[in-house]
Amino acid sequence: MQGILSNKILWAVLISLVGAQVLKVLIVLITERKFDRQRIRGTGGMPSSHSSSVTALAASVGFVEGFSSSEFTIALVLAFVVMYDAMGIRRAAGRHAEILNELMQDLADSMKDGFKPETLRTLLGHTFPQVVGGAILGILVSMIIFL
After folding, report:
1. Domains of the chain: which residue ranges?
2. Which residue has the higher pLDDT, 96 or 144?
3. Which of 98, 115, 119, 127 sits in a 20 to 30 Å window from 42, CA-based?
4. pTM for the predicted model, two decimal places
5. What's the confidence (pLDDT) of residue 118?
6. Cα→Cα distances 146→56, 63, 77, 137, 138, Å
């Protein structure tokens, strides 16, 4: 157990992940003047916690193993795949959920028997600035821990 508690790479990832989620709450609090506790666990939004955690992982591995190591290359490729997925597939799924929610609400409004559609989560993916913001956060956390 002592080994895992002293694992700086793991701490960089966890701090980056939690930091991104806290920042999401603070950003919503500042911009929308409301406390949205759902943002603590939710996906989507600024900054991307997925991006922050995988870039913290890649940067930390680079600091420990070297930026020319195979381990860093693996972590970097993983980071790019996760960030691409966040901007592509997951963002598209969120858009589809918005459209389906509208269609289901229209259907519920046209029916008289009290049809109650299940609302799909729409905040799934990220915009490019949200991914970049998460990546910057992940790199900064790793730099603070390792430099």
Report:
1. 2-81+128-146, 89-124
2. 144
3. 115
4. 0.81
5. 77
6. 11, 7, 21, 14, 12
